[in-house]
Amino acid sequence: MNALPSRFGALRVFALPAVVALLLGACAGANQPGAGAPLSLPAAEKPLVAQLVPTQPPSNLGSVERFAWQQVVHLGEAFAAGDVEGFLARVSRGFYRSYGTLESSLKDLLANSRARSAVVAIRQVTEEEGRVSVSTEWTRSVTFPEGSVDARRGETVFLFLKSDTSLRLLDYRGDAPFAIDGI
What we know:
Layout: H1 3-27, E1 38-39, H2 63-81, H3 84-88, H4 99-111, E2 115-128, E3 131-143, E4 149-161, E5 169-174
Antiparallel strand pairs: 1-4, 2-3, 3-4, 4-5
């Protein structure tokens, strides 16, 4: 009798990542790769999910591409720190999806939280037609005052104009950055 629960325990440990992947895939919309889908695993099972690891820029990146890489990393750091001004300082006032909407959505999310984290793994940086695109995967969690946690992951391509010497975020493709709802 003891062998049966042991086998089921092993099955649960090995099958959990596959089940999570299937659930996240089912939640993804056609236009949104990861759909910023909430991860709702019991606390005891969260460590079983593969953790995203931050990446370092390759040495062969040009200065503009390296700067774009750093801007995306700084966006994640500002989000995790709850630094609204630091986040918005890296976003163009001409943000295609409405700077004002982004500002109010970000302020609402961060003001109603007591802790945040964000991890960004950059997969590719490309430059073409005057744009710099930074393809990423990210995870983020927000802890609310009552103790509930909203953990999400997504895939976002951050778009910058090369002519903007400060390389501020102009638009994105895929999931809303760090699952900031409303943008």
